[in-house]
Amino acid sequence: MKVKILKIRLSEEFQNHDEQQLNRFLRQHEVIKITSSMINGSENFWSVIIYYDEGYPTVHEKKNKYTADSELPLNSDEVKILDSLRLWRNEKAKQQNLPSYFIATNKELLSIAKYKPAKKEELSDIKGFGRHKIENYGMEIIGLLENI
């Protein structure tokens, strides 16, 4: 038996995406038990714990990736995150002698600032973040997000 923990954020911007992620996981695994709890804080969300059997055959689906709507205004936390991400990206680009958009585009940084991934693996939910970017920059990005 294995355990998967998912977060269902209640904000209109993320709820649909998070529910799709939960539904996709439920379709792909043999679920033994599910528990959930409402977490209240600066960001209210449901924490869903899924106990499942790994031996169940999975269905491969194309994953919908998150991309932030650049028309929506940023809150103060998101502005701090975005500024920190841009500074990090520019320093990284100088170190590697690359254009900054090779490290991450403005749209990708905006999506990270709004999505606020808590684990390196969650970066794969961001449109434009594939295995290469996650392996090369994932831990630094998560570390940066944890320290803001």
TrEMBL record:
Transmembrane segments: none annotated. PROSITE patterns: HRDC (PS50967). SMART domains: HRDC. InterPro entries: HRDC-like_sf, HRDC_dom, HRDC_dom_sf. GO terms for molecular function: nucleic acid binding; nucleotide binding. It comes from the Bacteria. Pfam families: HRDC (PF00570). Residues 75-148 form the HRDC domain. This is Aldolase.
